[in-house]
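Amino acid chain:
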Amino acid sequence: MKGNSKNNLVLPIAASFASKAVQEKLDKLGIINEFDLVLHLPLRYEDETHLCPISNVLEGKTVQVEGVIIHSEVMYRPRRQLVCQVEDGSGILFIRFLNFYSSLIKTYSVGARVRLLGEARLGFFGTEMVHPKCHIVREGMPLPDALTPVYPTTAGLSQAVIRKLVRRALIGDNRVSNLSETLPNKTLKRYRLNSFKDSVMFLHQPPSNASAHLLQERTHPAWCRIKFDELLAQQLSMRLHYQQRRSHSAPALPGRNELTKALLESLSFSLTSAQRKTFSEISRNLSEAHPMQRLLQGDVGSGKTVVAALAALQAIENGYQVAIMAPTEILAEQHYQKFSHWFAPLFDSLGITIAWLSGSQKRKHRQTALSDIAEGNAMLTIGTHALFQEHVEFNKLGLAIIDEQHRFGVHQRLALSMKSTKAGMVPHQLMMSATPIPRTLSMSYYADLDVSVIDKLPPGRTQVVTKLFADTRRDEVIVRIREACCVGKQVYWVCPLIEESEVLQLKTALETYETLSLTFSDFKVGLLHGRLSSQEKLSVMELFKQGDIQLLVATTVVEVGMDVPNASLMVIEHAERMGLSQLHQLRGRIGRGIEASVCILLYQRPLSEIACKRLQIIFEHTDGFEIARQDLRLRGPGEFFGVRQSGIPMLRFADPERDETLLNDARCVAEEVLRDYPELAQRHLQRWLGEKRKYLRA
């Protein structure tokens, strides 16, 4: 950003400000410039603003005391330690140092006046502190008038150094630019926001009477201002991405109601109202001359695939190619079979082909597919990551459909969207996810996307009953499997690993397959895992679909893409090791027919606290959106289904779930600031995102 130092909000750290060695450590903390120091906010605070008489010290409380050492001794039982007695006129306190240098013995000798901060507890000799924060002081030395900040740090970078650097950024020559205001006055007044300068200064140096609770919970008005600014930067970035995308050109693909109508008439079922609504939204976007970037989300089994099929046909009936990319061969193969079944009757008379691309297919078949795609004979191409490789050239790509979009990195999605060969044109993009996105996450991290939600399951889907079984009840599970197979039903047994791991000590798919094959010698047991060849996987899947395999032992490769209505029982081994999204996806493989279905979660004790919470949530809830909301609470947005790989700067201070009110306000302000105060908007983005603001979502 051009301008003098007063207008430049992001100033590099001068060599005189921090040595090269210190700068290297600051880099590890993400501190590149002076303003990064301003936003390097404390994790917590220590109260060194007042002293507590030793006689008033309570066990379990962290307090500060001051007194004179009246006895100092190195003891060797039960281990080497330095033990001192400190007296302040009201009582005596023992301090113990278990790890210390010899110089400390001299420093903490009899007669030294010390100021101690630590947690008091009852020890062998009486009230004591172990390894307290300790300073040598002179009598009458004044106490600090502000709470002492404790900052995030890294090895070799002391709190004292960080405090010194932060203070220089706050009061140094560049303080004007570091603490300048980037919000309009009327916004500050309307939302009752503190000034940026006052908020930052308060958080780095809270007065002694500041509310410890509000600071700890990050609900103090100063914290609210910082979180609001961060959310506003995110919203501004998302809106700019949205505006920039709409400035690009894309082929207008209006609904001609030819192939789409033919497909709807050929289906054995009718679309739900939710499916009709979402297709209407997508169809309207496709008809516009700027690129659609829409996220289609819905719970497991909600019918996203048929909506995507209709979108594909709308593009094809306008003479444009469609690419469908899935993260696994199993899911891509399922799409290929389903789309071929639906589209073949429509395409045969038109001479249109469907191409299949995967990394494992034979060279001859691959070359044929590449040729059909490049020449435009294949109007629909389905595949895995192989779709965005350099040698794949489309003749006239109009729509890219990405299933399970969160499993792809941003560069992979971008590479596919760049496959359009028409100058100045970019294809429309439809992303699908069966991992429902909580509303607050959608409002923040997906604010630049148009979102369609299928919020209603097709009729006839049965509710899956979830049961929790400890590993010790394995014999009962075996009985249930036998009962199901005896009446003609099919069963999944899901294992988390292929090979034995001495660290995790989990049952493996191979071991389980061998054991269950012996246990159920009168039934056909199959094995499916990621290390099988593509042809072997397809063969096993087909045998299971046809009912020739009654019990399928598999790894989590069956998480998506498997649709076997006759499978009504699933056993998930070591469920305590899996995430909520994965458990919900796996459970969604059953309940696809008319029979009641049961999912048994086998777990092994002892359970961690978070594992207990996950199992309780999946046991109590079947609605994917509620499970996703609970998952967000447990893990936070950073880890929620790979948000980190989306390329969007992560929120450091704000939490969309907890700070929903601030998020709503930031959304409103973003529109207003972009419209009425574009210069302030750019300064705000430069301050918070720096070069990251140039990022455009793929």
Observations:
- The chain has 24 helices and 22 strands.
- Residues 20-41+163-216 form one domain.
